[in-house]
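During the no-cost extension, the postdoctoral fellow (Dr. R.K.) reprocessed legacy sequence entries with the updated structure-token encoder. One reprocessed record is reproduced below for audit purposes.
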Amino acid sequence: MRALTWHGKRDVRIDTVPDPKIQDPTDVLVKITSTGICGSDLHLYEVLGPFLEPGDILGHEPMGIVEEVGPEVTRLKAGDRVVVPFNVSCGTCWMCSKGLHSQCETTQVRERGKGASLFGFTKMYGQVPGGQAEFLRVPFGDQLPINVPHGPPDDRFVYLSDVLPTAWQSVEYADIPPGGTLTVLGLGPIGDMAARIALHRGASKVIGVDLVPERLARARARGVHTLDLTEYGKDTADEIRRLTDGRGTDAVIEAVGMEAHGTSGAKLAQQAVGLLPSAVAQKVTERAGVDPLAALNLAIDAVRRGGTLSISGVYGGNVDPLPLLTMFDKQIQIRMGQANVRRWVDDILPLLDDSDVLGVEDFATHRLPLEEGPQAYATFQAKKDGMVKTLLQP
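Re-encoded structure tokens follow.
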């Protein structure tokens, strides 16, 4: 089959690789029809190379048609249409029973001290082959895949793999009071969708902060009050307070993570680690990694006293310095973590009817053949061509 594979920093390629096969009796094989490129994929493209090997298949936002099922699978059959969550979760362990699918005890990567395995990620999360490919082996066939109806376009459902549950969880964790206010830092796919969900769920004002004109325009068209970071700079938090009676918003969703702008020292440190031999770089990252923290520091500044900070942006450092005095003094509540995809599916599915209240069917800015995946990565990383969300179609 054809698949998008990692070969080095900013070097992904379309290769011919062996077709996946049924390995366990509960496996299913899925023929991929659409698969997204996520902002987290850029972390692999740019920063987390020490934890990858040439030929690793990327991608964790796939959907498609069941091609084959293992002998113990009873819920699905060949021809069914499914979305595959990015967490590799069994659905039956203690953690999964608590709705913590990102901490699945069956697939935890214990040798690295990490939570559940993830499709198409790194050694830190199981090194499971990903979904930017023609076919994908999916374990736990009776629990993991999300069965969706035939008929509507893939765009209606594909975001159940990651974007929708990650954005939904970020809003849930933000704990916005009825009629309350929210700031979303970063209007990429997760931040954009989180703003839409917050407005749908009754937030009185959502302020979106970004520095990419196309992202700001998309959010503004959906009713978000947008602030251009290039215009407000260090005064952004002051402007957020001005818009909220001097207090700051009730909650802030930080949807940027380690890609934050404005902290050149940490960025240079990340790049320097990337030049080390892989074995050394892994140890440095896991034990002494430092992330750019501009977005996180802005979030702490912009949230009101007694407010809530919800972090969905991905971080990889283990010794990040945090302003604990400020956080304690402001009495900030913080929730964070990988989305528990299966936990939120039943809440989200009713919104994916023909009314399309969240605008999923025109959410993608680009739909490209899988073969154009390498160029799509380069364009997305450079924030060019108005690219916000890309779906690859094998």
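The radius of gyration is 20 Å. The mean pLDDT is 93. The remaining legacy entries will be reprocessed before the final report is submitted.
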